[in-house]
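Exercise (ungraded).
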Amino acid sequence: MQVRPSTSRRAFLRLSVLGSASAALLAACAAPPTPTPVPPPKPAAAPKPAAPAPTPTPAPAAKPAAPTPTAAPAPKPAAPTPTAAPAAKPATAAKGLSGKITYLHQDDPTLKVIRQGFVADFVKKFPDLQVEHIIAADLEQKRNALFAAGTPPDVFVPSGGSQNIAVYRDIALDLKPYVDRDSKELNLDDFFNKTLEFMKFKGKTLMWPNYPIVMVLAYNKELFDEAKVPYPTNDWTYEDVVKAGKPLTKKDSAGKPLQWGRVIDRAAYIGWMNALWAHGQPIFNDDVTKILLDSPKGIAALQWMYDTVYKDGIAPGPGQDLQGGFPGGKYAMEWGAHVAGWPGFRKANLKWDIVRLPKGPVSRGNRNALDTWTAAAQSKNPDAAWELIKFGSSYESGLKLANAGYAPYRKSVARDSWLKGTKGSRAVDPQNMEDYFVAMEESFHMPQVAFFWELTLKVIQPHFDLMWEKKKTPEQAAKDATVAANEFLRTQG
Amino acid sequence: MQAQAGIPVRRETAGEWVRRRLSSETVLFYVFVSPWIIGFLVFTAGPMLASLYLSLTEYKMVTPPRFIGLGNYELMLKNDLLFWKSLSVTFTYAIFHIPLALAIALGAALLLNQRLGGMPYFRTIFFLPVVLPAAASSILWWYMFNKDYGLINRGLELFGIEGPAWLALSDTALWAIIIMGFWTFGYAMVIFLAGLQAVPAVLYEAAEIDGGGRWARFRHVTLPMISPVLFFNLIMGTIATFQVFTQAFIMTNGGPANATLFYALYLYNNAFTYLKMGYASALAWALFVIIVVLTTINFTVGRRWVHYGN
């Protein structure tokens, strides 16, 4: 009988198990893997609003002394006015600022080109100033790493923009002294009022507008024509949406949906917050110590959303979203119609237009979320940081952005870009561009609380998920979400 | 160096001492393992200690950490329902995934251990999902689970069953991820295969002579002989299930209704979505403790059923 070296085999196996287990244990303790930022595929292929950015909630920290702006460096470009916008001027070399600043923004194909040109123009104007232009594939990770390393970017695009303004309360430079100093040069009257209003947080100006994002109702003209339904107007109410949505919803003989009247946002706060506001219900009480979702108006808002799916049948429930979405002609109306989705609508050769959101019982409940600029409070060169922001918010910079598809925040830029021509004669849809700017001025701002994203995603949304699955009534979902949210506010808020 | 009677002894010079020491096997050992030791200290042990400290702080990354003692652990155990929810989701996954995945991997290994043509190709095919990026696999499976167009529901249709909207419903989303988890059985399979091939044929012959049928041979020869391999796969599988992340992150992002909120995903959300890096560090240490406890239990119980050779 063959004698096998059983002892060494045993030892080897023991060692293997122990070694592998130890390594795995150590790995288990390490940080979780950084995921490849692959966006989850969306059930409805309609372009959704860019997901609001994560909400960091910085703890109050030692605040650097607010910088006193020095005199603005010369020369000053002529300020554009709504009535007489200046022609784009080549940047001229100027002195007055030196040193180095860092400018961080997301690696977006369109924006990247615009921003590179913008930085080149800025450097031409201030040749003694060095600008380190950081284009990050993952803006948040890069920003956090820079902050954690004690070398924050002087100027950066804060994730989530104005809707996250409270998040940046301890790390953003108060721009108010600079704005006050340069108000004439900035020509503040040229800004849409709400864009400036939303930059303020408790008396400070923590952000500066880059481009605004407001909610409108986009509609597919061909589907409306096909169903012989009149196009939406600015007088439309919630009842009109339901009335029009019914003939615009189509199913096959087996009851399988082929086309929906409207898109409904079931997955995030934007949908229900809009409905809440439209019903005249604020989300928090005045001192942000309680959630008011379970008020009669709050419940009515949820009930309305719920009914569009389960009573009126004009919007999809879970698992009923259709591939192709609004640009694919599967939805007649898109509620919100984030401006980032418009190029997709155009690419699909859709015949479409926009109107303001339909009137709810109290208002249209339109949310405004501006993409913005921010300077770091710890910036060692705040004057130069502000100068870069100011340069970026000039008429010329704004026009370049607007022509690339980003909504203007200056009236003069709007007039010379999006509002060029008249309704019906514009080169690309939507024709009714005017309504975008009306919507902007009647929009609401997000609650200015740092933990809003965490609260809505983590605490409230799961109850609404169950409502969409018909496991809870809207009233029960509202009540349960309120209890959970108030507990969160009490223990972690 | 001691002098022996009558023999003059020359004292070792410093250079000789250094050369001798440097040429010793011990020093060479440390020289050669130093890259790993330095790497371990800098990139594993250091961050671990840092995370232990950070778990005692409130740290948002963009502002300096603030020491809060055991506050994060208290919050976790007393006030954070999602901590318990994420544990429940992860344990549920583990309970179904580990035994079934081991059974599938062992079954496949037994099939691939046959002396038939083309086996290397089958082994490669079965192992392929392991080397596919998890993100790509997740997107593939997202389409597989599509209610109207997905292969899973199309398959069910053949039997007259209307499949659900797997990933959109809180009752089915976790099951979808459990099912998807079996897709990567190839890793355990190749280890089982290696174990099976190490079982001496003489044992099977002896069992056969004693009248043992197929089941008896499997039960009394194969299983005991591969028990160390089975144990290894059990340990690794247990640890892996507590680190499930990518598929939940990409396919459901923890929803609907937190039905797929795996522990690692919850930890990630706290760290990188809510920027609660201190709290996330506390969650990581809790995970470490949980895995240590489970591994210890496995090792203790394993003594009763794992047979190392003779």
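Further reading is listed at the end of the chapter. For now, observe: Residues 132 and 187 of chain B are 12 Å apart (CA to CA). The beta strands of chain B are 57-58, 66-67.
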